[in-house]
Design brief:
By secondary structure, the chain is an all-alpha fold. It contains 17 helices and no strands.
Length: 421
């Protein structure tokens, strides 16, 4: 039944509750990120300041990732996620206070900016725990035969929240301002905490509770590096996202190049997520496990082309369409990669493998934002985006040439084995 059932994972009540939590969290997080991007660029009018936002998040997220994975594999997942959400609410409330004129009156722009950077840094530390905890919790809610379907719906929910969060944030900036937009985000985080309480505590499947940290980390890294399918997917996506980080420069395009204001900024920010969301809904009905390696290479190549078109465009709707199709190709990439991770990772190592993935792929979003900020400062905004897209194309072509085994990667047999369990 699960082999052809596009709703297999949705037939489990706790998975639906989990998706609701996931949606509210990502909606709030993505909305908060663009509101802060807008506020920082409005304060500084300096593209490098947008890059610094990425740097402030990636430093703790990257350096803490492996240790966070070890903790996740050692602890009960539901309560750990509750703790993460509670801490996230403190960050959101802090940003709300920082944009309250009554409180920050008399503060210099630099002081406000440094406080924002500090909270973003704190959020990066917290994010190193979010990814591995969520990845591990999914595997405890649905059976193995539903993993691929769960990965698709999980990614789709993430993308839907990423569509609505930035778009809502862009419109709310214009309607009620940055301050009250952040108030709404704080309320959403509290809501996600309450919803998560409906999921029961889960067993800890790691047989090595209390294992020394260094040994635990070594085991996780060794597993990733010896599993070529996982390593190849992570590496390819990391480099592509690193050089395709044009999203970080969207406030500049919205304010200075396309001149479309905060509402246009929200549309631009949401366009890639719309494309990715629609793609992943389709993959729930048409699995893309066959010839997965070639599909991943083709998808990331298409992503690079879309980024170049976006960088060269001076027409708003051309830019929106280019970003939409960058999301379509990114959606294929995400489903393939998540399916590889779910199928190839044993239960007791999910936290550590997800942490390595966050170092490769998740952190590359912020590192890409920093790279884009620097190249925009040095080359100019348009040249920086075209350069990033070109580097993505070079990466894909090089990978396809030097790694024939990855080109031939097929997940069909892995899926069949899990359906027999």
């Amino acid at each position: 039944m699960a082999k052809t059932d596009p709703y297999a994972a949705l037939r489990f009540k706790e998975f639906n509750i989990f998706l609701l939590v996931r949606f509210v969290l990502v909606f709030g997080w993505s909305m908060q990120f663009i509101v802060i991007e807008w506020e920082v660029y409005s304060l500084t009018k300096d593209p490098l300041s947008l890059g610094v936002i990425g740097l402030m998040e990636i430093i703790p997220a990257f350096t803490m990732a492996l240790f966070a994975g070890h903790i996740v594999d050692q602890k009960e997942k539901r309560n750990l996620l509750l703790l993460c959400i509670a801490t996230f609410s403190i960050i959101s409330f802090g940003l709300f206070l920082l944009t309250w004129p009554t409180i920050v009156s008399g503060w210099t722009t630099q002081t406000i900016l440094y406080c924002i950077y500090f909270l973003v840094f704190f959020g990066g530390f917290l994010r190193s725990f979010f990814g591995p905890t969520i990845f591990s919790l999914v595997a405890l809610i649905v059976p193995k035969k539903a993993y691929p379907n769960a990965a698709t719906w999980n990614s789709s929910t993430w993308q839907m929240a990423s569509v609505l969060g930035p778009a809502t944030g862009g419109f709310l900036i214009g309607w009620i301002g940055v301050h009250w937009s952040l108030c709404i985000i704080f309320a959403l985080i509290i809501l996600s905490f309450i919803i998560l309480l409906q999921i029961k505590r889960k067993p800890i499947l790691n047989p090595k509770i209390g294992e020394p940290v260094i040994e635990s980390l070594k085991e996780g890294v060794r597993f990733v590096f010896k599993t070529k399918a996982i390593l190849g997917a992570m590496t390819l996506d990391m480099v592509a996202v690193l050089f395709g980080g044009a999203i970080a420069l969207l406030p500049i395009f919205a304010q200075d190049i396309l001149k479309v204001g905060s509402e246009g900024f929200g549309v631009l920010r949401a366009a890639p997520a719309v494309g990715a969301f629609l793609t992943m809904l389709i993959t729930a009905y048409l699995p893309i496990s066959k010839n997965a390696g070639m599909k991943l290479l083709a998808a990331i190549f298409g992503f690079g082309v879309c980024i170049i078109v976006f960088g060269l465009s001076t027409i708003f709707w051309v830019s929106v369409i280019a970003l939409f199709f960058s999301g379509v190709t990114d959606g294929v990439s995400m489903v393939v990669r998540q399916t590889i991770l779910q199928l190839k990772t044993p239960d007791h190592m999910r936290g550590r493998v997800a942490s390595v993935n966050s170092m490769f792929v998740g952190s590359s979003n912020e590192l890409g934002a920093f790279e884009s900020g620097i190249t925009a400062k040095l080359m100019g905004t348009v040249t920086a985006v075209v350069f990033g897209g070109t580097m993505t194309l070079i990466t894909v072509v090089t990978t396809g040439i030097v790694s024939p085994s990855f080109r031939k990667l097929d997940l069909t047999k892995d899926l069949e084995e899990h359906h027999k369990d």
